[in-house]
Amino acid sequence: MDSFQFLLNPSQELWNEMAVKIYNDVGWKTSFDDYDSFLEGFGKENFAFIVAVDKASGEPVACICGARFPCVEGSPSVFPIGQYYVLPEYRAHGLGKEVFAKLVEFADGANMFLYAEPKMKQKYIERSGFDKFAEWDVIVISANTKSVDLTRLQVEEDIKIASFNALDFNKVMEYDRETLSTGFAVDVEGNVFGYCHARIVYKNAISIGPFYADTQEVASTLLKHTLEAVPGFYNYESLNAFISTTNTKGLDIYKSMRL
């Protein structure tokens, strides 16, 4: 590994460069703004973006990131993993193992989880001990925005939608614990019972998430308000979301928009 330099939380430019490389190879959609959001939101003591740079060319060729969610009210600390990627021409040389090992060291014993590409599942089981699985799979939903019909989303007029800045932050945190541009559904007392976030990702696309709601009616109302608030919604190429196979009501909402 002497030919590579490993960097922890390097420049924004390296995050952007890896985001483009990953999209061009496997189509994963990432926002350039995610990096600063993660660093500010989690803090450098809880967030790690590790990049391997080829010393000869100066090119970033592998990366991985993860964030520590601290214990809340006795819950175990958890450390989700993402952006785990190695350029095709640099694979099969142990570079992926090396960046993964460095992230495990950073996690310092926290429970770790990741979403795996199906072809990588067995490797994670055998090599890294990821042998516990959810009873559901993740569905990737993607559609051209011009085929999306927001008017088909049902709206409950008595549900109040508020922006983040208009809310009591403690109310937001309380709801987030319980559910484990953003719109929030609130009652007359300001209690939160749903939120939806849409962000712009590379390349000229919209990605939905996190997205939680107590009822299907709240979810549909939130989604419509959130997407209508995206400036120039139909100028983006695609709308994307991730949802579990067990969330049939959520799937029905997306289908109602003709996704």
Features:
Aminopeptidase, 2 domains, globular, single chain, 259 residues, alpha+beta, 11 strands, six-stranded mixed sheet
Strand order of the largest sheet: 6-11-10-9-8-7
Count of domains: 2
The secondary structure category is alpha+beta
| Biggest beta-sheet profile | 6 strands, mixed
Q: Please state the overall shape, judged from the principal axes of the Cα atoms.
A: globular
Helix residue percentage: 25-40%
Average pLDDT figure: 86
Total number of helices: 7
How much of the sequence lies in strands comes to: 25-35%
Second CATH tier, the architecture of the largest domain: 3-Layer(aba) Sandwich
In the CATH hierarchy, the third-tier topology of the largest domain is known as Aminopeptidase
As residue ranges, the low-confidence spans are: 175-180
Distance between the ends: 45 Å
Radius of gyration: 20 Å
Structural features, described:
The protein has 259 residues and is of the alpha+beta class. The chain has two domains: 4-128, Aminopeptidase; 138-256, Gcn5-related N-acetyltransferase (GNAT) (Aminopeptidase, 3-Layer(aba) Sandwich), CATH 3.40.630.30. Helices cover 31% and strands 29% of the residues. The protein has seven helices and eleven strands. Helix 6 (216-228) links the parallel strand 10 and strand 11. The chain is globular, with a radius of gyration of 20 Å. The termini are far apart.
In brief:
It comes from Steinernema hermaphroditum. With 259 residues, the chain is α+β, with helices and mostly antiparallel strands.
What secondary-structure arrangement, pairings included, does this model have?
Layout: E1 4-8, H1 12-26, H2 33-42, E2 47-54, E3 60-67, E4 78-86, H3 95-107, E5 111-113, H4 121-128, E6 138-144, E7 160-162, H5 169-179, E8 182-186, E9 192-201, E10 205-213, H6 216-228, E11 238-244, H7 248-256
Protein name: N-acetyltransferase domain-containing protein
GO molecular function, one term: acyltransferase activity, transferring groups other than amino-acyl groups
Domain N-acetyltransferase: 6-151
